[in-house]
Amino acid sequence: MKLSARTERQIIYTLLIIAVGLPLVFPIGWKTEVSGYTEMAYKLIEETPAGNVVLISFDYDPSTITELQPMAEALIEHAFKKNHRIVATALWPMGVQMAEKAFQEICAAYPNKVYGEDYVNLGYKVGGMVSIQAMGRNLKEVYPVDSKGTHYDELPILQNIKRLKDFAWIASLSSGVPGLKEWVMVAHDTYGIPVTGGCTAISAPGFFAYVNEQKQLTGILGGLKSASEYESLIDRKGTATSKMDAQSIAHLLILVFIAAGNLKVYLSRRRKRNA
Amino acid sequence: MLSFMQSISPMLSSFMQIFGIWLSALFTLSIFSFLYKDNPFYKFAEQVFVGLSAAYWLVYIIHSILIPNLFAKLIGDFGGNAILLIPAALGLMMLLRLHPNTQWLSRYPMAIMIGTTAAISLLRYLKSDILFQVTATMINPLGGETTGEIVGNFLLILGTVCGVFFFYYSKKQEGIYKVPSKIGIWFLMISFGATFGYTVMARVSLLIGRLEFLLRDWLKII
Amino acid sequence: MKRNTPLIFAFIVGMLVILAEFIPHRPFGELTSTLENWFMIISGFAILLGQISLIRVNSHIIYHKESNWQYHLAGMISFFLMLIFGILWGMQESIGLLGHGERISQAIGMKPFDYLFEYAYMPLSSTVFSLLAFFIASAAYRAFIIRGFESNLLMITAVIVIIGRSSFGSMLTASLPEAYRFWHIPRLADFLMEYPNTAAQRAILISAGLGIVGSSLRIILGIERSYLGGDK
Q1: Most B CBs within 10 Å, among C28, C111, C202, to test the B interface
Q2: Cβ C115–B166 below 8 Å, yes or no?
Q3: Where are the domains of chain B?
Q4: For residue C231, what pLDDT band results from cuts at 50, 70 and 90?
Q5: What is the dihedral of CA B19, B25, B27, B33, to 10 degrees?
Q6: What's the rounded Cα separation, in Å, for the pair B170 and B179?
């Protein structure tokens, strides 16, 4: 039975929706192994002494929220567990709201964390690498006020923070440009600050080259699986882990599609040869 | 009137939340309808997305940059920050790009921005993407603890050198010069295969997020 | 003057930034710091330029009732609605021209700007990109065909990574003896990412980096002038 290209596409789409939807309704509970890159990122935060001020940059928008928001929540929770104080920034305008959502989610379990003392959201600045370079010289010049309009000098968390070098580590969660690469280039390669972060799975292969002996990147979280690995490391029942079943079934389905496509071409070639 | 509004406020807030979820579901299904074929619902949702996106950027530019970094400083201490009139003037010159007769004035701020970006890119890419990456390749391949690491180190050096050779287009790659180029292509194919695998993961994750919203927040099945 | 003076500006600014990298002390460090702050302000106006351009294009389509003008009208209405909400009442903790809009926030549960972001922008943004999952599934069926040695390499790597980056990848080869642990699929996938993939990506970074250095020099020295636009 010969199916038209359009019908084949509709069948593929329907099967994909079922393969992704069913495990969400009927979870399986498969476990994930932790990769070396995720462990490196975890160790950086784990081994940083308590009381240090750290920076997390939310360089993504809602289109990649499924992959990056669980990473953001896991990083914030881990930092809070280690009593690090968090300064949030954003190189994408939507990152400001993403940061607010992540803090809202985690602060529900940490009611003793006070805005302005334990964490602050400085907001968005345009300019990418140029902004980061400016932050490296003088953070107050770039952020005269935070996202709520409070002056820099009125925020206790920023008392001893003059420039990027005053941060113990920097994490960037990024889905494009500007993002993690710019933080590596300026924050680590120019100012020597340890940089880690997360990115969408599509850009992850390009970042592995920065995980080297120069430690341009100290570990990297690439995609939903890495987010679920990080959640397992900090014992967090987060949103990434619950989606891994659907992810795994979808991967299996893609392999079936690849096999089916190749079988179809092989049979078609054989028919032509025999004809 | 005020007390009436205050009394129905919790009910109205609850209604607006439910309305919001239905609005989100409508937009989600409108975009998904494109999978069947292009239709008015998809076109409507697409243009609303463009409009909201542009407005969001503009509001944040005003609130996050123009007000705190320019206007607030000028209003707060004009004498001390008078120099900010220069970038303000350059910014206004940028806007003159819209009219054909004054378009040439926008070249000045453009040149400053492009010059700054070019210089910063030159320095950062030279250090991070060339020097550091070359240094990272200059490893002792026999320094690994396991056989896998030693083999991997050799692959790393071979793949990097042959990969860079592949991108060298100043000389025709023929004869003996074809060999490292060919090996470079094999490493690039491995990388593209890995990228495809990760791309599958990325794309499927996004779909999982939307289906979870539809099943949990809208239909309340999970 | 219309073309040469901007080139001189680009040269001076470029050289200043490069010099400041090697001589961070006064006056270069301070000049560069000032330049970086000015850059952010000018970038803000550049984005404003983009928005005005968007309004112009859409207004033209709506005014001349070109094809699909109704949808562009819907786009413009949503643009102005969100802009007005953001300017009048601000967003989250930021104040707008009319204050925080406590009454309207109480009525709808949050500020109008945040409401549109949460229930309109976020689902639209997420869903537009989630369509790509379907296209990649379709591409996997139609385009991922074994042809030659190189495409085989690509396919085999993709299959190992797809299995290795899922939960059942570790289940499939969990029972392998210690001597063969290298062939444990997640570990094999990690090996491929750590060595051959890193080698290729490093080659791409180095080659692209050389290209960027070259084009940056061309811009600073005034050889590359395409950013100046047409001859007027």
Answers
A1: C202
A2: no
A3: 1-76, 140-222
A4: low
A5: -150
A6: 16
Q: Does residue A242 form part of some domain?
A: no
Q: How far is A274 from chain B (nearest CA, A)?
A: 33
Q: What is the pLDDT of residue C229?
A: 77
Domain total of chain A: 2
In whole angstroms, how far apart are CA B46 and each of B32, B40, B77, B209, C68? 11, 10, 44, 19, 12
C97 touches C86 (CB < 8 A):
no
Instruction: For residues C5 and C61, give the distance between their C-alpha atoms in angstroms, rounded to a whole number.
Output: 37
List of chain A residues whose C-beta atoms are within 8 Å of the C-beta of residue B57? 93
Name the residue type at position B72: A
d(CA B110, CA A166): 33
Q: Give the closest residue to A35 by CA, choosing from A243, A248, A233, A246.
A: A233
Which residues in chain C belong to E strands, given as ranges? none
Whether chain B has a CB inside 8 Å of the CB on C87: the answer is yes
Please check whether residue B78 is in contact with residue B87, taking contact to mean a CB–CB distance below 8 angstroms.
no
- HEC sequence for C134-149: HHHHHHHHHCCCCCCH
Does residue A76 sit within a domain?
yes
Note the ipTM here. Answer: 0.91
State the alpha helices, DSSP H only, in A138-238.
139-142, 180-183, 204-207, 223-233
Q: Choose the closest CB to C126 out of B122, B137, B210.
A: B210
- Asked, for residue A54, whether it belongs to a domain, the answer is yes
Amino acid letter, B190: I
Q: How far apart are CA B112 and CA B96, in angstroms?
A: 16
Q: Containing domain of residue A118, as a range?
A: 36-237
Q: In the structure encoding, which two tokens stand for residue A269, read together?
A: 């070639």
User: What pLDDT, on the 0 to 100 scale, is given for residue B28?
Assistant: 97
Q: Express each pLDDT in B162-214 by its tens digit.
A: 999 999 888 888 888 899 999 999 999 999 999 999 999 999 999 999 999 99
